[in-house]
Amino acid sequence: MTVTDSSNSSRNPAPGGGADRLDKINPFRVMTVMQRAAELEAQGRKVIHMEVGEPDFTTAAPLVAAAKAALDAGHTGYTPAPGIPQLRQKLAEHYQQNYGVSVDSARILVTPGASAGLMLLAHLLVGPGDGILLGDPAYPCVRNFIHLVQGRPLLIPVGPAENFQPTVAQLETGCDARTTGLWLASPANPTGAILDRGRLQQSCDWANSRGLHVLVDEIYHGLHYVDDMPTVLEVDDSSFVVNSFSKYFGMTGWRLGWIVVPEAFVEKANILAQNLYISAPSMAQYAALAAFEPGSREIFEQRREAFRQRGDYLRRELAAMGFGLAEAVQGAFYLYADISRFSNDAEQFCQQMLEKEAVAITPGTDFGEHRARQYVRFAFTTSMENLEEGVARLRQALGQT
Amino acid sequence: MTVTDSSNSSRNPAPGGGADRLDKINPFRVMTVMQRAAELEAQGRKVIHMEVGEPDFTTAAPLVAAAKAALDAGHTGYTPAPGIPQLRQKLAEHYQQNYGVSVDSARILVTPGASAGLMLLAHLLVGPGDGILLGDPAYPCVRNFIHLVQGRPLLIPVGPAENFQPTVAQLETGCDARTTGLWLASPANPTGAILDRGRLQQSCDWANSRGLHVLVDEIYHGLHYVDDMPTVLEVDDSSFVVNSFSKYFGMTGWRLGWIVVPEAFVEKANILAQNLYISAPSMAQYAALAAFEPGSREIFEQRREAFRQRGDYLRRELAAMGFGLAEAVQGAFYLYADISRFSNDAEQFCQQMLEKEAVAITPGTDFGEHRARQYVRFAFTTSMENLEEGVARLRQALGQT
């Protein structure tokens, strides 16, 4: 097994800029896909979008109504840096009701998107030179936030054999003398893979025995299609959580997330929140209060069921075509598909599917280095009709008609 | 003249956290004032709030209506990372119409608040060890963003003699071999001081001759009470600007700002935007489109006139009481008042005013180190009636009845 210290990669420096760490931050390849897709659409072609990590549903009506009511009530000013107390209380209740864990609302900070939550936690937890263990593939911004605070992402290559989640044996091998943290994601992007309760517990136990902090990205919680979906707080109260209203709650454009930190880090986290972003958007916080009403929950569950059906359909069809896939969709709205039967160059493969058949998907190279050219990510964030059209086009492109 | 390298200060480390730079980030003293004010209010006392840097006006009706229309139209998703094109175009027109400068909209990136803009620019421009010249006093987050990217804030002490803005002679003295940038603010917080066109030009010329980048915080533009309020882009097209919809446009809680970068930095800035925050809030961007309608402008100008009247009144009354003040309010909604006739301890003075008379103001120690205990900041972000009440209470507290 090879562990890659990705801080060694380099690119051209920004003109005149003094910040070397930017050399390690790459643009997302999916942006190239999206730009070319937009060009094709401008030429009149219909593109099937399976590249975008954003639900196709607009925000649910009860949340929109709550935002409008908040605007009418004049809630247009800053809120306290960690969020309005009633939303933090709702989140504490959410942990109690849905996971059976008791979390003091003082430990929950509402953030302007999970991005800001990750940024805050990176500043809170990672010093220059600190090694942070994380899976490869993974959501690319996580690696980049670690670079931005001068930390060292220690990438653990994961594949189907490990259900795309690092094992304790791999972590043990990847850990060096200056490793200070373990960052996990479950369900993960781009794979949808879930770390089951037993493995989650083992990972935390191992990290605690090493004195490492544990951070878990839980932003796809709610969008899971397995029976048991534990938060890390159930197995390790000393861990850090980042979560979001974007995915299950369908609030991407509102920029709202939250983090949970241990009691001892509350004060520092609050100071960072004040400095980094003052507060999360006010009307988004009031809108989110309505997310915990039964009527909203019903809408979210209907949407989850739609995602489940789409994922099952797409997985079955792609597997029949010869894409390498896990046996079931576990979570999120992604399929991470092995294309080695068709190509050894994911970027070229994505380009070909787009040019030939106007099907937009994301190359694995956006998510890491481990076998990245052998994988592509399909997002089932479009209608069943579009997925069916996409499947037909892929068959055409692959000569399977 | 003494130049302070504020990176030498230190505090206790976060428990278990590996990030030493946090030791340089202090909580805002104003938070203590606000918490105590809330306690007094809970006891039934009426507090006169002159501590808060936020307009008391809610967001103007045309902007709220535009946000609601955007919600109805389903604009609840992510936008492009640098913002919706139509808003960037409006901002380009804003520079043309109000300042007579031509700025390509590609150089304008919409950000989730000026905070995110400053964060992005800190990552773009400041490497570890880089010295950044800035005035003392100044908005504290600026210094903290520099700390967070491992730069060195080089604080130039400024006072009434320099109109609270650094002179070229001071910059020359303060510049060291590893200085890479000059960060200015005009109108400035906490002083409201404006760098006039001649001095702005001189500062840029000096920085350019030294090979330093120039960044100007222009978030209080529009709230100026002088005839000539140049943007730095008029005198130096190679400079960086951070601006906001929070103050003049009255959109604090929406979290919306923008930055302007030179052409050569556009690509790197876009990559950082994608990584740091994905996009600014969608509905805030659509709301902001309405800010450029004539009806909205009229509201903003009425509010500016209200701020002017409040500022003039408060300056006159405070000066009559013996506070040391500039001869006129130049910009923003702040008065930075010398209290040396009453006290040599601004924090104690603020505490006394709050306990004795329930008047909330901010100690100078939130804004830097230079003579900070000799100053307090008054924000005239409350009604004229409240200001009159505040003045009467201050007279009482100071034994001037």
Describe this structure in words.
- Chain A has 401 residues and is α/β, with parallel strands linked by helices.
- Chain A folds into two domains: 142 residues, Aspartate Aminotransferase, domain 1; 231 residues, Type I PLP-dependent aspartate aminotransferase-like (Major domain) (Aspartate Aminotransferase, domain 2, 3-Layer(aba) Sandwich), CATH 3.40.640.10.
- In chain A, 40% of the residues lie in helices and 14% in strands.
- In chain A, the strands form three sheets. In chain A, strands 1-5-4-6-7-8-9-3 form an eight-stranded mixed β-sheet, sandwiched between helices.
- In chain A, strand 6, helix 7 and strand 7 form a beta-alpha-beta unit.
- In chain A, helix 1 runs parallel beside helix 12 and helix 4 crosses helix 5.
- At the A-B interface, helix 2, helix 4, helix 5, helix 9 and helix 10 of A face helix 2, helix 4, helix 5, helix 9 and helix 10 of B.
Question: Can you lay out the helices and strands and say which pair or pack?
Answer:
The structure is a homodimer of 401-residue chains.
Chain A: E1 4-5, H1 29-42, E2 48-49, H2 61-72, H3 85-99, E3 108-111, H4 113-125, E4 131-136, H5 140-148, E5 152-157, H6 168-174, E6 179-185, H7 197-210, E7 213-217, H8 232-235, E8 240-244, E9 257-260, H9 266-277, H10 282-289, H11 294-321, E10 334-338, H12 346-357, E11 359-360, E12 362-363, E13 375-379, H13 384-397
Parallel strand pairs in A: 2-11, 4-5, 4-6, 6-7, 7-8
Antiparallel strand pairs in A: 1-5, 3-9, 8-9, 10-13, 12-13
